[in-house]
Amino acid sequence: MPAGKFSISKEKALPKIRHYCAYQERSHHEVKEKLYGFGLRKTEVEELMATLIEDDYLNESRFAEQFAGGRFRMKKWGKVKITHELKLRQVSPYNLKKALAAIPEEDYLETLQKLVHDKWTSLKHEQYINRQAKTMAYLLQKGYEAGLIKEALAKERQQP
């Protein structure tokens, strides 16, 4: 065991990991890392993971949908950035697709249009080409698709 690492029994780890999962939705990857951090062996980790799934403390589909919905509503992230973050958390492609589908398309496009409007307005003293480039870069960084950004920018420029 490396210096500073501690090890607890599987029996002591179960209530701790249940609390960890009950506090907020977690990905399977996060929970595995936490269990390995407790100093547990692979077989013990797999047994605890199975128990958590059976007891509905751990549900990858629920995690992915809440993560995607939360990042979209609270941080106004686009689907590209949400996809990237879910892949980092090792969410399955099926659950990733399902989570993105749970974001209403109308809300998504409306949010994008509002972000375009706000950014475009904030740059009103910039030259046209800089204004367009900065707005585009900002929305790409937020994780929106280039094609959708261009459409939203075109709509914004038509506004009086």
From TrEMBL:
RecX third three-helical domain residues: 106-153
Example GO biological process: regulation of DNA repair
Signal peptide annotation: none
Record-level GO cellular component terms: cytoplasm
Pfam families: RecX_HTH2, RecX_HTH3
Ranges of residues in domain RecX second three-helical: 59-100
Location(s) in or outside the cell: Cytoplasm
Keywords linked to the UniProt accession: Cytoplasm
Record-linked InterPro entries: RecX_HTH_2nd, RecX_HTH_3rd, Regulatory_RecX, WH-like_DNA-bd_sf
Entry similarity comment: Belongs to the RecX family.
Stated name of the protein: Regulatory protein RecX
Organism: Filimonas effusa
The organism's taxonomic lineage, starting at the top: Bacteria, Pseudomonadati, Bacteroidota, Chitinophagia, Chitinophagales
